[in-house]
Structures are given as C-alpha cells and as structure tokens.
C-alpha cells in the first residue's frame, strides 16, 4: 500500500470517527432534551405537591370545625396522603431515571473524548507521514536533476515546465 493509499485510508477512518462524533453529539443533545423535559415534569410535580399541601391545610381547618368535620377531614387527609405517596414514588422514579441518563451522558462524553484523542493521534501520524513523503519526493527530484546532468539524458519535464 503506497503512502497515498495510506493517507486515503486514514482520512476514511477519520471520516467515520467524525460521523461517530456527530452521532454522539446528537445523542447528547437528545439526552439534554430529555433531561429538560423531566425537569419540567418535576416542576409540575412540585406545583402539584404545593396544591396538595393547600388542600391539607383546608382539611386542618375543617377538623377544627367539629367532630363530623373531623371525620370527613380525616378521610380527606388519608386520600391526600396516598396521593402524595404516589407522587413521591413517581418523583423517586424520575430522579432514578435522571441519574441513569446522567450516567449514560458521562459514558458518551468519555467515548467522545477517546474518539478525539484517536483523531488527534491520527492527524499527528498523517502530518508526520506527509512530511516524510515530502522529504522523500524532494530527495528524488534532486537525484533526478543530478542524474539528468550526469547522463545528459533529458528526463520527464517537471510539473511546472510542460
């Protein structure tokens, strides 16, 4: 495989890695959108909890009004407590999902960092290979000029001399 084919192969590998990076970026953006949506859900849950708290305060006032109101308020509080427990359960589930999403995002960032490191190494290798190729071509051109002078045989004209 000549240098040109090696360079093309490296460039194709870099293109694939770049596509992988772009796909990783899209996954990160989708994860961020998902986190934002969950945050909005948490805010709505908080407002719902605040509304539930106001309902409980109204139940407390009802308890102070008398025995019958006390029994009705007790039933209302028990129903409200079950609703709060259900909401807390959902909030705990949402928090757990957010933690999982963050872990996935951290893994994606780690993969992206590794890909960037590989790309940097590939670019450094390409720079080194192109410099070696340039030096080799210049040496061959100098040798051809000297050989032409010694043998008095006209070689192929240089690119700019045609």
List its salient traits:
Helix Hairpins; 162 residues; 91% helix; rod-shaped; single chain
What does this structure look like?
There is one protein chain. By secondary structure, this protein is mainly α. It has helices at residues 3-64, 67-151.
Tally of separate domains: 1
Order of helices and strands: HH
Mean pLDDT: 86
Helical run tally: 2
Look at the helices and sheets and give the structural class: mainly alpha
Radius of gyration: 36 Å
Span of the ends, CA to CA: 29 Å
The largest sheet, given as strand count, sense and whether it forms a barrel, is: none
Query: So what's the CATH class?
Result: Mainly Alpha
Record field, number of beta strands:
0
What is the CATH topology assignment? Answer: Helix Hairpins
Shape: rod-shaped
Beta content comes to: under 5%
Helix content: over 70%
Q: Just name the CATH architecture.
A: Orthogonal Bundle
Query: Unreliable runs, pLDDT <50, ≥5 residues?
Result: none
Short account of what is shown:
By secondary structure, the protein is mostly helical. It contains two helices and no strands.
SSE order and pairing:
Layout: H1 3-64, H2 67-151
Helix pairs in contact: 1-2
């Amino acid at each position: 495989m000549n240098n040109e084919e090696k360079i093309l192969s490296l460039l194709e590998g870099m293109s694939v890695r770049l596509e992988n990076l772009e796909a990783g970026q899209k996954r990160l953006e989708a994860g961020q959108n998902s986190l934002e949506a969950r945050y909005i859900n948490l805010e709505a849950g908080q407002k719902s909890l605040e509304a539930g708290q106001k309902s409980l305060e109204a139940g407390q006032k009802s308890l102070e009004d008398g025995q019958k109101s006390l029994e009705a308020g007790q039933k209302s509080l028990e129903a409200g407590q079950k609703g709060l427990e259900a909401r807390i359960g959902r909030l705990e589930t949402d928090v757990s999902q957010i933690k999982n999403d963050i872990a996935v995002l951290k893994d994606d960032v780690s993969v992206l960092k590794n890909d960037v490191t590989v790309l940097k190494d590939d670019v450094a290798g390409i720079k080194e290979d192109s410099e070696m190729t340039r030096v080799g071509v210049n040496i061959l051109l100098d040798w051809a000029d000297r050989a032409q002078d010694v043998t008095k045989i006209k070689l192929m004209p240089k690119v700019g001399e045609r």
